[in-house]
User: What shape does this take?
Amino acid sequence: MSDADNEGLDFRIRRDDWSRCEFVTNEVSLDPPAGGVLFRVDRFALTANNITYAVAGDMLDYWGFFPADEGWGRIPVMGFADVLASSHPAVAVGERVFGFFPMSRHLLIEAEREGESVIIDARHTVRPTRCSTGSTRPWPRTPCTRPLAGPSVKTR
Assistant: This one.
């Protein structure tokens, strides 16, 4: 782990005026609470879907995926992350996942395993972070999977 691992950075937008956006820095604890998993977001994609998440943010609770201060929102993106720290017995440090993440450097979840290949954030009734770690079955509702080899995916 480097010293930069505990330097958080979030990109957020005003929910009522998307032309207002900002980067917010914060300190991240490398010691997650019991059952917690800290991801370090590595890469994510920006697509037209991200605008849809903002448009439907209230109606479909996309704003609830990654809460922000009153009036601000964190748009979900699909991306890759590595487990930076874990206090969950079934989630290993270094595990690589793909799925919904905020436009942030880190994400802390209260992890819960659904079988061998799925990690969810137990705090949400709508579960934005659902990480499948090796399954080849169709994606669950909100996936996070180990990357499959492919020409457009650099996994390391």
In short: The beta strands are 7-14, 17-27, 36-45, 72-73, 76-86, 96-102, 106-113, 118-121, 130-132. Residues 74 and 111 are 20 Å apart (CA to CA). The helical segments are 48-55.
